[in-house]
Amino acid sequence: MDFRVEPGRRVGVLGGTFDPVHNGHLVLAAAARDGFALDLVVFIPAAQPPHKQGEPVSSFSHRATMLELALADQSAMVVSRMERQRLGPSYSIDTLRELRQNLPAACDLFFIIGSDAFAEITTWKNYQELFRYADFLVAERPDLAPGRLAHLLGDLPGFTPPAVESSPGLAVDPDLRPWRHRLGGLVYPCSVNAVPVSATNIRARARRGQSLADLVPAPVAAYIEQNGLYR
Ligand code: ATP
């Protein structure tokens, strides 16, 4: 493990291809950190993204370096290169297991994920097991209207909806309460001021020589330019 965490800390994990990291990822991480009192958000680039096999992906080194540039002035956000050590496709279940084995037992782990990725979670390796190791913070990307998460979860096996409030004085917006998986994990909606940007869109803009200002941090835009990425 290439980062350290003190016992009792609340740690968010944001996995992805990050080809390249963009402002949508940063806003997502900041919303999770601030909304759920996380002490640290660890960005974990996939060495071999399982869902992108056969597609061209920039080298791990370029993607991790861009993450370092993007996170340099963010508080409580770091990059981990832990997935580079493993052979074969980078499955989240293996990463979560490794994190659980190496972090202090008293740490709370939160897997941060966009609603687009969460909607496909049944295609992930051993996806039910993920909920044994971490709670989930699901950010609503523009495709997911408030309350849509409940419909998504209602269609998955193993989840129990939040209990109906018995005392009206304590009522919490039902859309914000967590669902519980039978293996223990809670799934919370995480509200984010969505930034309508994707890495696909950024690569297309770079290919056309268009500006990336306001879509990625300036040092990342400069790195893409200097290294001729996505041309
Ligand atoms: P691509 O367009 O290449 O598929 P991407 O922009 O979706 O990439 P990933 O690296 O695949 O980026 O995403 C990592 C995680 O960040 C996923 O959980 C994804 O849902 C989330 N995410 C990506 N873009 C945004 C955004 N604009 N707002 C909120 N979450 C996002």
What would your notes on this structure say?
- This protein is of the alpha/beta class and 231 residues long.
- The protein has one domain: HUPs (Rossmann fold), CATH 3.40.50.
- Helices cover 31% and strands 16% of the residues.
- An eight-stranded mixed β-sheet has the order 3-2-1-4-5-8-7-6, with helices on both faces.
- Helix 2 links the parallel strand 2 and strand 3.
- The longest helix has 13 residues, at 23-35.
- The protein is globular, with a radius of gyration of 18 Å.
- The protein starts with 9 loop residues before the first strand and ends in a 5-residue tail after the last helix.
- The model has no long low-confidence stretch (mean pLDDT 91).
- Adenosine-5'-triphosphate is lined by residues 16-19, 24-25, 28, 113-114, 116-117, 139, 141, 192, 194-195, 197-200.
What's the quick description here?
This protein is an alpha/beta fold and 231 residues long. The protein has helices at 23-35, 60-71, 92-102, 115-118, 127-133, 148-154, 199-207, 218-226; strands at residues 10-16, 40-45, 77-79, 108-114, 135-139, 159-160, 179-181, 186-190. The model has no long low-confidence stretch (mean pLDDT 91).
